[in-house]
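Holo prediction — inosinic acid.
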Amino acid sequence: MNRILIGAQWGDEGKGKIIDLLARKSDIIVRYQGGNNAGHTVRFSDKTYILHLIPSGILHSGKVCVIGNGVVLDPEAFFEEVDVLESKGINVDGRLFVSEQAHLIMPYHKIMDCLREENLKKSEMIGTTKRGIGPCYADKMARVGLRAGDLKNLGYFKDRLESVLEEKNAVLRKIYGHPGISFKEVYKHCLKYRKRLLGFLTDTPTYLYNASRKGKSILFEGAQGTLLDVDHGTYPYVTSSNASVGGAIAGSGVSPTVIDRVIGVVKAYTTRVGEGPFPTQFPASLMKQIQTKGEEFGATTGRPRRCGWFDAVIARYSVRINGLDEMAMMKLDVLSGLPEIKIAVAYKLGGKEFSDFPPSSCDFSRCQPVYETMKGWNEDLTGVRRWKQLPPNARKYLKRLESLMETPISVVSIGSKRSQTIFL
Ligand code: IMP
């Protein structure tokens, strides 16, 4: 069984926990897009791990993890993560592979990410994670990127870096008044990681092709969420990769015909980190309450996440874009104690009401949510283990979401522990 797991909102849906559950049933776990802008929190053997780049499946001994060609890899961040895992007794040798075609995040990408954000008007800021993600993907598309496999041939790598750096320094100096960055410095930085990185490099599309032909079960671990997808999200307030289902195919080199199931992950409310329109955002006091109760602080940057009501328009849109077969509903427990719960079932714009996500960012930023209100519940859900133990109003809420999303909910999560999960 080959499955793709996708965030169906703006990221931070709680994918880490579901990946961990599915990793047990899989042989190989693949990251296919994004970089160390992601943060997957996993509770494993009573310890909490936050993984940014390495697939969460690495925590399970014997599982093979792949960082695909669609990922942008910061060698410094990669080895920091490897070292933390190994210091905790998790050995990655022989079961962690990096695509030769994965693009490298270079020191100048991180500098550019920061400078670009600092030079934008407040209203135009994206609120990036400043990890160099956007500039690295921009270079990939402009065909001036450096790939992990380029490090195999030092002469080639050196020549390319020299010519790319010339242009980068011109931009840094002329546009941003930055002193620039010396070739020697960047080259030294790359050499520092080169030998160790070469040991992880693999022709991952061929590896995955052969594994799938042998009947191995592959889990494709999405990062971020559909509304942050560079094509289908709330552009320009998005990340620079395809966080929706197409990213899994392009970013791993496998054929769509080998995929059996696409699973979406949503939170029982909505969150968003960084800038950009968010129609169902809570008023300040409720925001604080849910932020605190739901521990809504970014796993990568520590920034508080903006919180709001469940938006069924975007969830349904994600179902359509990704062809989601089922949904995992996360953090239902956080909503306990609210007298009433709202769901955005449609948007209103210019006197018109509609229930499809608008393709125009300009329209989306002016949409007003149309809410349906349901009764809340007071019971603490963290000890619930079966559907029937859920309070009737919580069950009604889930049933309504299921019908609005036109997709069955297969998992309900009511806490971070593995045992705090209801399978339907
Ligand atoms: P970048 O990916 O660092 O370029 O950031 C672009 C936008 O995506 C910003 O609004 C970030 O806050 C958001 N973003 C990037 N990665 C994540 C994530 O893993 N979870 C939630 N938001 C993210």
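READOUT: The domain at 103-197 is CATH 1.10.300.10 (Adenylosuccinate Synthetase, subunit A; domain 2).
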